[in-house]
């Protein structure tokens, strides 16, 4: 049954919550003194008051600005350099047939089919375009011999 335009979808079936991700899954910890966490305030007005307070208090602003973003001496450049290296190493250390992970979907089949047709039509155009030149070369060779 197709719902009509005036049908309201019950909100209990729609998940509008922000997922709660366990802190154990992160390799780093963000310094709570380096930013304003909106979840620490019960109302939007309290959050706005805190932003105004920090905006008007130069020392509080400078203290927050100069706090390190990550705790535990975490270096994001080294972290992501290691992540990228491990990712590429896992690909390049495999046999090429195992590393090749393209699916066999309809879109890929269609792409390959169209690419093959383009290649075939390009070869045919080239053959037609070079026909007069090739015929003259054959005539010259025949006359020389």
UniProtKB/TrEMBL annotation:
Which InterPro entries does the record cross-reference, listed alphabetically? Answer: GT10-like_C_sf
Source domain of life is Bacteria
The entry's protein name is: Uncharacterized protein
**Organism in which the protein naturally occurs:** Helicobacter didelphidarum
């Amino acid at each position: 049954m197709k719902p009509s335009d005036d049908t309201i979808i019950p909100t209990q079936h729609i998940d509008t919550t922000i997922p709660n991700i366990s802190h154990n899954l992160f390799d780093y910890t963000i310094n709570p003194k380096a930013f304003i966490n909106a979840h620490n305030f019960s109302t939007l007005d309290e959050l706005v008051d805190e932003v105004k307070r920090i905006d008007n208090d130069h020392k509080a602003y400078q203290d927050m600005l100069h706090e390190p973003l990550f705790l535990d001496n975490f270096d994001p450049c080294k972290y992501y350099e290691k992540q990228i290296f491990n990712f590429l190493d896992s690909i390049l250390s495999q046999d090429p047939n195992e590393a090749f992970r393209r699916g066999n979907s309809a879109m890929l089949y269609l792409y390959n089919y169209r690419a093959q047709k383009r290649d075939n039509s390009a070869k045919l155009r080239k053959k037609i375009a070079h026909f007069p030149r090739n015929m003259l070369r054959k005539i010259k060779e025949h006359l020389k011999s």
